[in-house]
C-alpha cells in the first residue's frame, strides 16, 4: 500500500491543457528558429546579389561599356522575375510583420500617381548610381553606399516616426565621417586613372543616390501605411513591380531619346571580353539586382 502511494506521488500526470501548452511552446520555438533561418538566408542573398550586381556593373564600364542608360536599365529591367512571387505569396497567409485588413481600396487615380511618382524617382536614382559606379572604384563606391543607412534612419525619423537610439546615432556619425573622408583620398591605383572632377561627380552622385534610396524607402513605407493600408507580401511586391515597370519605361525613353541605342551594337562588338561576355554581363547584372530586391523585400 505504501509503495503504491509513493508511486502515485511520483507519477506526473499531464492534463490536456498542459499538453497544449507544451505543444504551443514547441511550435513557437520552431517558428522562431524558422524565422531566424529565413533571415539568415535572405540576408546572404541580399549581400551576394548586391555585391555581384555592383562588381558586374563596374566590370561593364571597365571593359568598354559607355552607355549610362544601359547601365541604368539593367537595374530595373529584370522586374518580371518578381512576378511569380506575387502569385506565390498570398496576403491572407503570408504577412510581412502582420497583415492589416484593408478598410477601403485606393482609387486607380491614386495608385497610378503613386506608382508613377515612385517609378520616375527610381529611374533617376538608378541613373545617379550609374554615374557613381562609372567614376568610382568598387570599394569606394560600396563604402559610400553604406551612407544609405544613415539617410534611411534620418528620413524614417521624420516620415515614419522611427526613434533614434544611441546605436543608430553612433552609426550615423561613423558612416558620415568615413564617407566624407573618401572625397579627399584618391591615391589608390584605380582612382589615379580617374580625373579629380569625375571623382567628385561620382562621389556626389553616389551620395545623392543613397539619400534618394533612403527617402524612397521611407515614402514607400508611408504609402503602405497611409494609402495602401496593408503591409502584406503581395502588396509590397505589387508596388515594387509597378514602380520598376514605370522606371524601366522611363529609362527606355531616355535610352532612345539620347541616341545611345544606336551605339549598342558597336559597343557589344568592341567589348573587351567579347560579345558573349557583354550579354552575360548585362543579364547577370539584371538578375543580381532582382535577387537583391526580392530578398530585401522578403527579409523585411
From TrEMBL:
The keyword Ribosomal protein does not apply. Keywords: Membrane, Transmembrane, Transmembrane helix, Transport. Pfam families: PUNUT. GO terms for molecular function: purine nucleobase transmembrane transporter activity; purine nucleoside transmembrane transporter activity. It is found in: Membrane. It is a multi-pass membrane protein. It comes from the Eukaryota. The chain crosses the membrane at residues 35-57, 69-90, 111-132, 138-160, 167-184, 199-224, 236-258, 278-298. GO terms for cellular component: membrane. InterPro entries: EmrE-like, PUP_plant. Its main location: membrane. Belongs to the purine permeases (TC 2.A.7.14) family. This is Probable purine permease. The lineage of its organism: Eukaryota, Viridiplantae, Streptophyta, Embryophyta, Tracheophyta.
